[in-house]
Amino acid sequence: MAESDLKADLRHYLHSGRDTLVWKLDGLGEYDVRRPLVPTATNLLGLVKHMAGVTAAYMGEVFGRPFPEPLPWMGVDAEPNADMWATADESREQVLGLYHRVWAHADATLDVLDLEARGRVPWWRPERREVTLHRVVVHLIAELHRHAGHADMVRELIDGAAGYRADNDNLPPGDEAWWKDYHARVDAAAHQASRR
């Protein structure tokens, strides 16, 4: 496979994950995009902010192409999990705008470097720090899609909306009654198994 084809495949999965993650915020008010719905405080806008920082680090710093804007919540002196939530002073527009600028920077890194280009991940264990662009992009795709899955669950907890993309939810067809029955069957099976 030619490197250009491999890059196109990698870019497809990066863009797909990014689009899915950002789409999960559509149609929600400020409280809902920020509200924590699980004990670890996972929230939609925080997931976007986190991925902006992670992407900037992996596709910038690791390859000597630092993202030009300061990201204080990613610094070594930042409070734990500062990248996982947006403060009241950080607007949705600011966080989304930042993420779009980070995308452009990351895409430029993918454009100008060969997939075998060497980089260094200083926050990884010493024996794993030396990496290729290919490895980092695969790692980033995995992390991005993991967080897109988190966003899917959080969005479902907020208003019941679920699915992969606006144009393809990737769910079996079924109306509200079908899903209610399905949920009841899964719950019944869980209860039955727990009594064995």
Features:
196 residues, mainly alpha, two-stranded antiparallel sheet, 6 helices, 2 strands
What features would you describe in this structure?
The protein has a two-stranded antiparallel sheet. It is mainly α. The chain has helices at residues 3-23, 30-34, 44-59, 92-112, 133-159, 176-194; strands at 118-120, 130-132. The radius of gyration is 19 Å and the shape is globular.
Question: Residue ranges: pLDDT <50 for 5 or more in a row?
Answer: none
Structural class: mainly alpha
Question: What does the average pLDDT come to?
Answer: 93
What proportion of the residues form beta strands (DSSP E)?
under 5%
* Cα shape: globular
Draw up the topology in text:
Elements: H1 3-23, H2 30-34, H3 44-59, H4 92-112, E1 118-120, E2 130-132, H5 133-159, H6 176-194
In short:
The protein is mainly alpha-helical and 196 residues long. Helices cover 56% and strands 3% of the residues.
